[in-house]
Amino acid sequence: MDDINSSSFERNRYFKGKLMTTRDFETEQKYFNDKRRLLNRLFFGGGIVCGLQVIKIDDKTISIEKGIAIDSSGREVILEKNIIMDKGIITAELNKFEDEENEEFMKDLYLCIQYKEEEKDVVNSVLENKQEHNLVKDSCEIFLSDESPDTSDFGLYNLIEDKKLLCVVEDIKETKTVKESQRLKVWQTVPRFVNPGDVFEIVVTVEKGYFSDAVRLEYEIESEEFEPVEKDGFKVSYSESLKNKEWLQSYKCLVRAKETLDNKSSKIRIKDGKIKISIGDRQYIEEVHIVNSPKIIVESLKERVLKEYSNRSYDDAVLSTKGNAICLARVSIYKYKSSYTIEDVERVRADEYAVSLPLMRVLDNLDKKHDKNAAYSNDQNLIGEVRAFLAQTAATSAKTYSSGIQYIDFNTAQKVGNKYFTENEISHELGIGPVYIGTGLELNYQDTLSGILNNDSEIFYGSNTVFEDSEYAPDIVGVNIGVILYPNRGTFRIGVSLPPQKHRQKKLQGINVRWWAFRK
């Protein structure tokens, strides 16, 4: 099934007296497997079907929930039980990369899953003097990769958008203590089809590393078939004023198709073929010769998309340029010698999900209930709404864990007696509904590097008075922490109490509260 174009769907024809050999039984299995996998690819596409949530348990450990995915060959990738990637597994994966020689580095890696077959159940061959495996088990393997996923091959988005990778910047930042290595990618996306006079967005997407300094991007677009809407014209000027840890960020430029053009292919180019990119204080000039080619048409956008879909050849329908690995999450890692710290785990976006026909019917009914007339009045808006709903649904359902540190400043926090409360509600980023919030008193030391290597950080749960007068006693004894959850708002508030004598004795200005939020 890896090369579906060469598959010939042959099955056994049975008759009395037929001698069945190994080849015949293999043909029988291959026929049904290849047919099923072909339909998987054409009806559902590749991506996650359900489960496979990725959760950061602590700084050394990741949990992966059981689930099912379909790879780009249509094979079912099944993880039968929850697994834990602990220090031994992750260290072995880190040693595969070039940076293993460096004592210290920061890197964004991608947690992937792919189909694998396992032979099992050894038996003796009746005809030959040797042992053979009696069963082949559908399995999977999970690994870390330094290649970020390309979701452009999932689904049928190529029918409604023209997405081009403009450039890839290999950014390496070296200081006296650390080497930060990452790839920065810039994509430009336009609609595949537009009507004369339509205003649409040119979307520039910047994929950056978790550790990346602020990114600045400048270039200019040119085209004879389109005209700018905004005062900045065709200038693309993307800038981050502060370091931002969002994986994907985008800049949008409004453009109008000229009224006089009908059924014409058009071009959107990069002026002078150059893009200026700054990452922190590092400057790059990238040569770009990629062209987007939206087509200006007079017919309905929906009719044209349906026509393109129905006119696909067999080769176009089954061709996949994507590898068979499916990305589950991005993992940002800081490594020092033989130790490492997982800084962040971010779930993949909606494009990595296999969308079923029942889901599309649900979305269609949702549009009709929302506004029976508007659902079909503007094809471009319909496409945008469905994609936005998919992205929101996937993001909400995918994220089941979050964590953070809240500093309680005794000088500014709301106060009642010896009790202090956070002034503002804290968002746990898991959406509305009930979640579990756990808290602990976190004590950190000034030597951050020492804290990573020598465990000089401490987190106390429950009542830390248990450790009073012992060698394990914290610097602060008697702190109690409480939480109020606001399930309808997706937020919570933290309160702490501290005995007055302890407050005066230690002259505390505030404390750090580490919190974790979980959704089952």
Structural notes for this entry:
By secondary structure, the chain is of the alpha+beta class. It folds into four domains: 44-144, no CATH class; 155-321, Immunoglobulin-like; 356-397, no CATH class; 401-518, no CATH class. It contains eight helices and 32 strands. It has helices at residues 22-43, 87-94, 301-310, 314-318, 357-370, 379-398, 448-454, 500-506, and strands at 47-51, 54-58, 61-64, 67-70, 76-79, 83-85, 104-124, 131-145, 161-174, 179-191, 193-194, 199-207, 215-222, 226-228, 235-239, 248-257, 264-265, 269-270, 274-279, 282-287, 295-296, 326-336, 339-347, 401-409, 414-416, 419-421, 426-427, 436-443, 458-460, 480-486, 491-497, 510-518. Strands 7, 8, 9, 10, 12, 14, 16, 22 and 23 form a nine-stranded mixed beta sheet that branches. A hairpin with a 2-residue loop joins β2 and β3. The chain is globular, with a radius of gyration of 28 Å. Mean pLDDT is 78; it is low at 372-380 and 445-455.
